[in-house]
Amino acid sequence: MNYQISRATDSDLPLMQRLFYQTVTIYGSKIFTKEEVKIFSRLALDKNHWTQKFIEDYIYNVKLNGEVIGSFSLSKDGVIEYIFVHQNYQGRGIAKKLYSTLEEVAREAGINSLSTRINLNTKDFFEKNGFKIIKNAEKVSGGEEIVSYSGVKNF
């Protein structure tokens, strides 16, 4: 499979918006709350949001035959907002290569530490890439716990 990974450009925006929207609305229910799906699907279509992210963050895309099939967003302070590959292209080593590019970009930018929110679907991926997984538990009314995870990796 002959795909390319490169920094996102303005011409990528419509393709990214479509991929992000499809991912959030179709597969997001497995990992996000209903409220998060609504918020993220609105953000996917918000051109101003993306234009600002292109300026402020490191956004890279994986392209195959002119289509964006994966992407990551890394802030200048080392927070990974997202890294994903379209479901039809998962299991082919693309996420591994995309993550490798993310680390290369971070190192070149002088970023010494990465952090991210993690869910049960991404936990193994980040562990395999050297992240320390931190379990965050919060007590809510009724004594139940809400569990979330974050990950940290220092270079």
TrEMBL record:
Q: Which InterPro entries match?
A: Acyl_CoA_acyltransferase (IPR016181), GNAT_dom (IPR000182), N-acetyltrans/Recomb-assoc (IPR052564)
Is the keyword Acyltransferase assigned to this protein? yes
Provide the N-acetyltransferase domain boundaries: 3-155
EC identifiers of the protein: 2.3.-.-
In its UniProt entry, what is this protein called? GNAT family N-acetyltransferase
Species per Swiss-Prot/TrEMBL record? Aquimarina rubra
What Gene Ontology terms describe what this protein does at the molecular function level?
acyltransferase activity
Keyword list (alphabetical) reads: Acyltransferase, Transferase
| Keyword Protein biosynthesis assigned | no
